[in-house]
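User: Predict the complex with phenylalanine.
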Amino acid sequence: MYRRFAPVVGKGVNQGVAPVTYGTGDRPPRGNYASARADYTCEQDWARYTAADHDTYRRLYTRQLQQLPGRACDEFIAAVQQLGTPDRIPRFDEVSERLLKATGWQIVGVPGLIPEEAFFALLAARKFPVTDWIRQPEEFDYVVEPDVFHDLFGHVPLLFDPVFADYMQAYGAGGLKASRLDACELLARLYWYTVEFGLIATPQGLRAYGAGILSSAGELPYSVHSPEPQRVAFGLQRLMRSRYRIDTFQATYFVIDSFQQLFDATAPDFTPVYAEVRARIERDGEVEAGQALPGERLFSVC
Ligand code: PHE
Ligand code: FE
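Assistant: Here is the predicted structure with phenylalanine placed in the model:
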């Protein structure tokens, strides 16, 4: 299984070192931050990857690719080949070139998790940070921090979709604003339940578009077909009230109808939204992962 990263801000041992965007781990993040620039990006030192690194990538990619039909959304399946040959870790420059032509996005190398504001600033500039290192063979099914496989395979294909690409940029801009409003925790839930763990309803059935699902061998079939988890129709305020799990498969997934719906629902100014959500939490509490609310529309799987 592939563990995910909770956008929990500022707490934990890494405080001061800065790269604490995600996770409440008790050890410093991996990665060579000494080589990073002021915006936390770094060169992808492609020559440094070993044959074993490329082999890990190839095996992860191959396993995941065969799982996609019937589980991943069409936009993802159509674009995944843009990553290039599965035989070796892609060169970021080559993927960027194709991405730039398609949607004006680029990918940039980073040593690992980066501070929230740096992350938001990159997204707002249509630059997606991709971790440069790959997991060790013994971490094949489970890696604590995002690595190049999660970041590239999970996130980059949908950046080829024009509407999703615009959503990601808007999220970055919204993040910079949320930082000023001290609302990053609420906004992080949106990232979690859409960009990382989102499901989309299609005429053929539910499909995954979240990167945390799409890069996980275990959670991809589970999220789309298991009768266990809740699947709730996307609602912005419902989502922002909802806690999430970082160390097991999700107990709740939010389902969108289209990327356009997601874009439109998140386009309005969040300043009053944050205030309303805070007031509602104050009154009724947060919604626990897996908890259903009275009368809400749930999706069933067959
Ligand atoms: N509309 C949001 C705001 O004003 C910004 C945003 C857009 C956030 C898309 C997330 C996703 O804060
Ligand atoms: Fe991710």
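The CA atoms of residues 69 and 77 lie 8 Å apart.
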